[in-house]
Amino acid sequence: MKIRVLGTAAGGGLPQWNCGCAECAAARRSGAERSQDCLAVSGDGRAWYLVNASPDLRTQLLAAPELAPAPGTRDTPLRGVLLTSGELDHTLGLLTLREADRLTVHATEPVRRALHQAFPVGPLLASYTGSHWHTVTPGEPVELAGGLRAEAFALGGKRPRYAADLPGEGRPDRTDWVTGYRFTAADGAACAVYAPGLAEWTPAMDRAVAGADLVLLDGTFSTADELAERTGGARRSPGMGHLAVRDSLPHLARRPGPRYLYTHLNNTNPLARRDPPRAADLAAAVAAVAEDGMLIEL
Ligand code: MLT
Ligand code: MN
Ligand code: ZN
């Protein structure tokens, strides 16, 4: 299995265009920028899938040699997109893919509905390309090209703000607005987990990371009060669907084995810096911060 980490920042990126905080200012000075959370994964190194479609997608694709078309053709190695949520930082890039000959998008039922009604990317894309939407059901693996298998697991019911009033919600308690994916290849010999929106550490997350080689997980905030402290607002990270790094680290310590990498870092998070101040805490837990452009082979 090959994984190209395309982007590692939360919505807004680093620096965020309208933010002059210490982290954003440092990123502007040093050029140590982070683009918005997005991943490419392949079972055989030839057929590739995007996981999420960030607003920075065009630049991210151009920086990934594996995703270039074959010379003299428009044959792209990109076989489809899997979504972990319907959030704008995970879906705006779908419109960037409209030049595709055809496009398959895998999403859970509520995310698919949000992307056809509240934010109608589905109908918009259909005017440009032959798009096909496949409904993802947590616990039911999807067999993808190149020997890649993706199994979604439900992570929570936090819906995007633009979909707050989406009508026709069959099950108000549904927990598949946000999912993680467990990818396996080579008949289970390689396993990677991707969970950029982890509201709390659940039994499903425990099951997903058991036996995994690599876990890319939610590193939005270092602490639950980080955003409130930085912005003077009242929003705490648990209510925003993001378990703080400080609160997930004890779970990683309980589950040694995989390589843990934090991603989806908000621009308020000191861990997003080039030389993060509390990196030693992570190292003690055998975790690190993911970087844009990383290529990981399992
Ligand atoms: C999130 O990760 O919670 C969302 O992407 C927030 C946002 O709308 O930027
Ligand atoms: Mn986000
Ligand atoms: Zn900032």
TrEMBL record:
Pathway: Cofactor biosynthesis; pyrroloquinoline quinone biosynthesis. Gene3D superfamilies: Ribonuclease Z/Hydroxyacylglutathione hydrolase-like. Pfam families: Lactamase_B_2. The keyword Transport applies. InterPro entries: Metallo-B-lactamas (IPR001279), PQQ_synth_PqqB (IPR011842), RibonucZ/Hydroxyglut_hydro (IPR036866). CDD domains: PQQB-like_MBL-fold. Residues 48-264 form the Metallo-beta-lactamase domain. Keywords: PQQ biosynthesis, Transport. Belongs to the PqqB family. May be involved in the transport of PQQ or its precursor to the periplasm. This is Coenzyme PQQ synthesis protein B. It comes from Kitasatospora cathayae. The lineage of its organism: Bacteria, Bacillati, Actinomycetota, Actinomycetes, Kitasatosporales.
